[in-house]
Amino acid sequence: MPNKLKRQGRIKELLSTYSISNQDDLLRLLKKEGFAITQATMSRDFAELGVVRAFVQGNVCYMLDPDESGNQIAKLIGFEILSIQHNETMVVVRTLAGRAQGVAHFIDRLNKEEIMGTIGGDDTLLVIPNKKENVPVIIDFIKKLMTENPGRKVK
Predict the structure, then answer these.
(1) Domains and CATH numbers, the chain
(2) pTM greater than 0.85
(3) Which H/E stretch holds residue 94?
(4) Are 129 and 117 in contact (CB under 8 A)?
């Protein structure tokens, strides 16, 4: 798994486990675990993960916004997908080099009923539907991911 995905996964875990009121505290926790990042990188991670500052029991802390979490990542994922091909039973997605596993991971974590699972290589992933009738549903879902980016048109 790429370092960014590991780091962002760990950020989500830390924010879900601890009450973190400032970025310096989170940077220290991440550094202890081998993630030496800058404040600018953390800000980008926060934007991609949908992290917000909120009042919890009278204190300000960072937390994942359930309404926003994943929306920013979905936009990035859409840029990484290049094309979709399919037959009667499977969907093959081509991605930017080195991004198929990240896209597969994102799709798996959505826990969509129509998707049994994914297999990601370097620039190609296989999306396996739970039944062949759901192939069109999966194609529409992936096309929607691709078109959530302004200015991008998908055939």
Answers:
(1) 3-64 (1.10.10.10), 77-147 (3.30.1360.40)
(2) no
(3) strand 91-95
(4) no
Which amino acid type is present at position 95?
A: T
Instruction: Give pLDDT tens digits for 42-81.
Output: 888 887 787 888 877 778 888 877 555 555 566 678 888 9
Residue type, 46: F
**84 contacts 143 by C-beta, under 8 angstroms:** yes
Place of tokens 């950020």: 11
H-helix or E-strand containing 55? Answer: strand 51-56
Contacts of residues 84-89 at CB distance under 8 Å and 24 or more positions apart, as own/partner, are 84/139, 84/142, 84/143, 84/146, 86/135, 86/139, 88/132, 88/135, 89/129, 89/132, 89/135
d(CA 32, CA 71): 29
Per-residue pLDDT band for 124 (boundaries 50, 70, 90) equals: very high
